[in-house]
């Protein structure tokens, strides 16, 4: 078994072992720099070439390095990433054994599980891996299997694709392009779902939908499909470009589009698209607590229109997310698209193509790597291939396909230096199963390698039933963890007054309008509550925080007039009136609302928010970053981890730059000492042969008729003795050369160990850390009470003596 340390390198993906010139597998690992994926990659190989195993290994390495990934799976193979068995026991494999396959092998399912477990254990050992590395993969990243349009795995709701972005983003010029792209993707996806291959520049349907979506978003309004259908029939504008609406798209023809969308909404199968987690890229890339996630988006169960619909929406969301990220030189996230045929063709323009081309052209600056896999090079647009810095080439079915690949490599604008077409062609033609040619703009020459054994059990495509068994539905949150359920349904009324109580001077009062219909026999009752609004400033120059916040608190006056137990409210959602409704009753005011109470309540509100409203931030000791106000723990962990990755990559580059000359000199000494050793060995062999011939001739002469004491025999004996002496000297030279070569190799090994030790220290700083809490409280001078008022809230007082709320939750 190979030493694990020979491929566990920081920021590197272990993809396999290099092939020697004779085609055998050598001991040297193929280590691919993770950040090189920001220039994107394409993986080509026919069925049976080992393409799936290689790409699964690539995703495994991303997970091990803490890099999140989105994996689009049209074939259903990538769910195998969840089949990871650290114990490598037959019991772990048994539930996933194909009984038909076992029968073909002449085994029972139990026997086949034993054989499969042994096969996987042996294969992992041959590539230097074991169950511990599988366990580390499961600990390093969360693996989630989504099935959009189906409840088998984790369903995804596509409603967010029509939700308006946050207000500040709409005023950001840089975000406007992302907004337009997202609207175009949403429109293209919907039209693809109803079977309309609309040209974004020429199609009236597409232009109208985009304009409707942008009009709603510009006003800050969310859309759903039902509202979009209504807007198609009655758009909120009268002109499109220079044409009036009726000339551009008459109402009778718009009705056909609205009808097609309505059929979609009315279909029973569409309900599954509205359920599940929201289609948010941040949620797909990280867990709520900030752990990196590999999200497998299985679309094998969908038809062609549904696949195009979902992929287009997903890519549109990804483009919008990408443009909201800060620039980086490190690999922030990965998009892997398996079997991309039909989504990025060379001539046609499906709805998914524009977003994919945008990602390939722009994603590098944001640290997003794109990897596309397919069987045939003709499946991909050559403009896309020109943006791929890495080519992973396996066995191709025909010489024509090989020629297309060579044309693409030769004509790629990204290539630097010369290109030996004949040599690369010979390497490509000689590839076997699980053998690939890696051609990268970051390397001087192509290399051949054999893929490593996958950590995941490559069982093959999973059915929806198997996915349901593999990826159970997340349990709903317990009732205590859900959002505020609002006011109590019924309360015992306080003592009633038929007249409106008189308030102390300086205390304003407002009346909340009833939001529900009066029940039969019920009477309107107003109950008092306190409403307070304060502006707070949190400032700490040492950590660079200067944050303003306005808070509104609502406190039901069911006892003493205080702010203890108050909860946050949104005054904008309160329908306030200046006067009560006629004939209403009033609950009695609590004691303590006398003269000067307005000033006392304002002062108490200021003290309460200073004490009860601290700003709790998180601080990363390793990066010195401080979370932003309102930034969740998980989101801050993601940001801190990305900063650590960037720092790690920069430190690793500096480390390599410092060690590269020393390692190069040490390797040169090893080569020269080994060459000297080979020369000494050759000279020793020649001297030894000469001495043996001379001694042999002397002995034969003495035995066959020549006298031992003759001058000739004595001379030959002396010559033989001198030859033996030279041979002994050559043996000594060889020994000294061997010692010199061993010393040079020991020096190289020590230098390499020193480099790895310093690299390991970088790895230690890249692990997740415990965040420190930073609690900021507003000073008295930074706390301003803007408003204190008495709020009369309406209840329906029934004949049973219970009061039921007649207002919406503020």
Q: What do these coordinates show?
A:
It contains 21 helices and 26 strands. It is of the alpha/beta class and 810 residues long. Among the domains are: 496-614 and 777-805, no CATH class; 633-765, Helix Hairpins (Orthogonal Bundle). The chain has an 11-stranded mixed beta sheet. Strands 16, 17, 18, 19, 20, 21, 22, 25 and 26 form a 9-stranded mixed beta sheet that branches. A hairpin with a 5-residue loop joins strand 25 and strand 26 (803-805). Helix 20 (633-703) packs antiparallel against helix 21 (711-765). The longest helix has 71 residues, at 633-703. The model is unreliable at 475-489 and 693-714 (pLDDT under 50).
Can you give me a brief rundown of this structure?
With 810 residues, this protein is α/β, with parallel strands linked by helices.
Key phrases:
eleven-stranded mixed sheet; 810 residues; Helix Hairpins; alpha/beta; globular
Q: Tell me what portion of residues adopts beta-strand conformation.
A: 15-25%
Question: Strand tally, please?
Answer: 26
Average pLDDT level: 82
Nearest-angstrom radius of gyration? 37 Å
Helix content: 40-55%
Q: Which word captures the global form?
A: globular
Structural class call reads: alpha/beta
Measured between the Cα atoms of the first and last residue, the distance is 66 Å
Spans of 5+ residues with little confidence (pLDDT < 50)?
A: 475-489, 693-714
Question: What's the assembly state of these chains?
Answer: single chain
Number of helices: 21
Biggest beta sheet attributes: 11 strands, mixed
Identify the strand order in the major beta sheet.
Answer: 2-1-15-14-13-3-12-11-4-10-5
